[in-house]
Specification:
With about 850 residues, the protein is of the alpha/beta class. About 55% of the residues lie in helices and about 10% in strands. Helix 15 runs parallel beside helix 20.
Length: about 850
């Protein structure tokens, strides 16, 4: 019982110092210095009865150990608070009462005792204060009676003990009152902060609700047969706008929280993030993107650009300044129906003027102080305080003029930016972009010839090789012929618009450029363009019209925002099991995995997979072809999962040439975790493995995978040069030419004989092998043609009519062989370049 009471008592002491032992640290410094220093001050004066030098040095040593806490061994730091507890008892009440008794009391002794009691009051809660003082006093009296040869209690000292008790009681009450007042101030500040955040979040959340209600209206009622896929383009546009508005509202809410917390913590802006945006562009963006309560509120705002100017600052911070001023200007619209808001840009100033109720003169003086709010419930005034801090960080200032009943005008003044400073910034940005982009190949897709000329001029200093396409179809044709690093894509074009082009690229219709970086060039509202371009698989967007500097920065960000790359060694330390009955197919995938740092074990069939797992089950993942002789991939995966062994949950990735829903469902049912289409694209390979090894196990839905490519009406490029370039980098090109080409020719002969003999199973096996071989070999046209035949055969048992297709396939294989040999001859004398796959 006594131990439990002691633990509860000490728990209050720990709670008292929960936010850090700062007061104890200050006490240790004072004790370390003043215990010996106070002794030295007495030298030359009347000698005390008791020479307490040893005791003072002992107390200084105790405080010194307390001061050295940061250098204590880690295992001893948990003893810091118990040690400090004992230190307070010994150095304060015990020391000062003992010396007072030894010196026969007196006024000085009484004063020292009161000081010790006062320090104990500051350094502990009232419960432990009583225990520390009582223990210290008792220890001092006991030591005095035990060790003094002639102990006598000083009458004057004892007589003043009631004064000591009154001081202790009064000090404790005063401290309690002070702590209660401080707690009330903190509670009030937290309440104001919470109210401010709630106030700032109310509008964004209302906008999110409005957007969700709009989406709900577009959805079919439960049980109706009208699927979403039948929505027209106008309905889809409405849905996208609702989603974009909801996302924008969430973003504004998060910015409101960040602004509030930054202001509370006085977090400074980072000047290294400053750029030189256009004041007019940012003002228009703020007016366009502000979350209005209704359309009528938007119509109350007018923007007047007298003369545009650039300022040095952060666009996002200035946007939020504008949002705050617009919100304040529109706050009284419900009460003052005739309120109008005029925003003017000119002479290095932005002015926001409203015809609302105005602000009283006595309020203006403190308008920008934190936690000041005028006539508004639920706000704290942090918005205007934040505005002032941002403007001062920009080197400018914000001021307010107002006449009650007439107007309120906020003026944002920016310091002029010299031409030399702007040019230095422009040169620095273009130099960084040139370093990242030089030598890269960009396809400019734009149906407006004048726009193409202007954009090409902006791109000229960046060292890019620029090709042009006047519409979406021509863009796809060029993407099918050449590998590109970047595509600058207009979204609104005839024939095929930008979204359709991006969709077909990402679906694999131009395999050499499936993962090319696509940057949209659009005049759509920013928040709508952000949602739609992300959904379309693009890597960024820029608004029309766009100046040279932001265009260069957008392209640089896109090219540097790489997916998982070989340079990062994503498979370092990983042990991978690769199963495929074709050694040729295994060769390329294994090379990619080893280049990424992985250790690869290759096997030919499912039985070998089970054997490897049983004898050495420490594999991080298994990549397995579905169609293997004997034990195929599906049956192998089923046995792995049913084995009950520690390796039963190893991640398994299916490798297959067909991607119908049945195949995917079959893979899911037997417990496979991923699904990759042959020929395997290295970026997708790395992405899938990294995701699985990180603990996420997505089995792609059928709509996530490219649909089987039909036989093209017009033949595209013969070769996938991006894949061939990767083989050059890996040092596999010569091996490919030496091994793959004879094997492709042999498989075509096997296929012809099987078709002639009506051996469907043998012909299907030959097609399967030829599909994998041509895909891995970078024989793009041949691969697409074989795939267009094989997938219907595999999934529907539907063969092409007649037998002329075999002769056509043979001719295509011969032309492919010639093209591959010509590519090898061109590549032989060159150094292997960096390539994307």
């Amino acid at each position: 019982m006594l131990m439990q009471a002691a633990r509860r008592l000490f728990a209050h002491y720990v709670e008292y110092h929960r936010h850090g032992p700062l007061m104890l640290r200050y006490f240790s410094i004072v004790g370390l210095l003043f215990f010996p220093a106070y002794y030295l001050l007495r030298l030359g004066k009347v000698e005390p009865v008791y020479d307490d030098l040893a005791l003072r040095l002992f107390d200084a040593a105790i405080c010194g150990v307390l001061f050295l806490r940061r250098w204590w061994p880690q295992r001893l730091r948990r003893c810091y608070l118990p040690y400090s507890y004992v230190a307070l008892i010994l150095t304060l009440p015990a020391t000062f009462v003992f010396t007072a008794l030894k010196n026969g009391g007196g006024t000085v002794a009484v004063g020292n005792t009161l000081m010790a009691a006062f320090l104990v009051i500051l350094l502990s809660d009232w419960r432990n204060m009583a225990v520390i003082l009582t223990s210290g006093f008792g220890l001092a009296v006991g030591a005095y009676l035990l060790f003094d040869p002639d102990p006598r209690m000083p009458v004057d000292y004892v007589a003043r003990l009631p004064i000591l008790a009154a001081v202790v009681l009064g000090g404790s009450l005063f401290k309690d009152a002070l702590e209660r007042a401080t707690a009330e101030k903190v509670r009030s500040a937290y309440a104001s902060l919470a109210a401010s955040i709630a106030h700032e979040m109310r509008s964004p959340l209302a906008q999110v609700r409005h957007s969700l209600e709009g989406v709900q209206k577009m959805l079919p009622a439960p049980g109706e047969l009208s699927p979403l896929a039948q929505l027209g383009s106008s309905e889809l546009e409405v849905l996208y706008r609702h989603v974009a508005q909801g996302e924008q509202a969430i973003q504004r809410g998060l910015q409101a929280i960040s602004m509030t917390l930054d202001e509370v913590n006085a977090k400074p802006l980072d000047p290294s993030t400053f750029s030189y945006p256009s004041a007019a562009e940012v003002v228009h963006k703020a007016v366009d993107e502000y979350s209005y309560g209704d359309e009528a509120a938007r119509e109350r705002i007018r923007v007047h650009v007298v003369d545009d100017f650039q300022f040095r600052g952060e666009e996002t911070a200035f946007l939020f300044v504008m949002f705050n001023l617009i919100k304040n200007a529109l706050f009284y619209v419900s009460q003052y129906r005739g309120t109008r808001v005029d925003i003017s840009v000119g002479s290095h100033e932005v002015k926001v003027r409203d015809s609302g109720p105005g602000i009283a003169p006595e309020v203006l003086a403190n308008l920008f102080e934190p936690f000041r709010s005028v006539g508004k419930n639920g706000g704290t005034g942090l918005g205007l305080a934040y505005c002032r801090r941002v403007m001062r960080a920009f080197g400018g200032e914000i001021r307010c003029e107002s006449v009650v009943g007439q107007f309120t005008e906020f003026t944002l003044h920016f310091p002029p930016i010299g031409e030399a400073e702007r040019e230095e910034h422009r040169t620095k940005v273009l130099a960084a972009a040139h370093e990242a982009l030089t030598g890269k190949r960009l396809l400019l897709v734009e149906d407006d010839a004048a726009q193409r000329v202007t954009t090409r001029h902006k791109l000229r200093p960046l060292g890019l090789q620029v090709d042009e396409a006047a519409d979406g179809q021509r863009a796809l044709d060029m993407l099918a012929r050449h590998p590109y690093d970047l595509v600058l894509l207009d979204l609104h074009m005839p024939v095929l618009d930008g979204y359709q082009v991006a969709q077909r690229v990402r679906q694999g219709q131009v395999p050499a450029n499936r993962y090319v970086r696509i940057i949209a060039h659009t005049s759509e509202p920013v928040h709508v363009a952000r949602v739609k371009t992300q959904r379309a698989g693009m890597d960024g967007f820029i608004s029309k019209p766009c100046a040279q500097v932001p265009l260069a920065q957008a392209l640089q960000r896109a090219i540097q925002r790489r997916p998982v790359s070989v340079a990062s060694q994503p498979m370092a330390g990983r042990r991978l099991l690769l199963a495929d009955d074709s050694a040729f197919n295994r060769r390329a995938v294994a090379a990619y995995l080893r280049e990424a740092g992985g250790t690869v074990v290759e096997v030919e069939h499912g039985a070998a997979v089970l054997e490897q797992l049983a004898t050495s089950g420490d594999f991080d993942a298994v990549l397995m072809d579905l169609n293997m002789p004997g034990l195929d991939g599906l049956e192998t995966a089923r046995q792995v999962r049913a084995s009950g062994q520690p390796w039963a949950r190893v991640p398994i990735v299916a490798l297959t040439a067909h991607s119908d829903a049945a195949a995917i469902d079959g893979a899911r049912l037997v417990g496979m975790d991923g699904f990759l289409i042959k020929p395997v694209e290295v970026s997708m390979l790395y992405d899938a493995l990294v995701a699985l090894l990180a603990g996420t196990r997505p089995v792609p839905r059928p709509e996530m995978l490219p649909t089987p490519a039909a036989a093209p009406e017009a033949e595209g490029p013969l070769l996938n040069e991006a894949r061939l370039a990767s083989y050059r980098r890996l040092g596999l090109l010569d091996e490919l030419l030496g091994d793959y080409l004879p094997e492709i020719a042999r498989l075509v002969d096997v296929l012809a004989v099987a078709v002639q003999a009506h051996e469907a199973e043998q012909a299907s096996d030959a097609l399967h092998s030829l599909l994998g071989m041509s895909g891995e070999a970078g024989a793009l046209a041949l691969y697409q043609r074989v795939r267009g035949i094989y997938v219907p055969v595999l999934e529907q048992r539907r063969w092409p009519e007649g037998d002329s297709w075999v002769a056509e396939l043979r001719q295509l294989a011969l032309r492919t062989e010639q093209a591959l040999r010509e590519y090898g001859a061109r590549a032989a004398p060159e150094d292997a370049p960096s390539a994307r796959t």
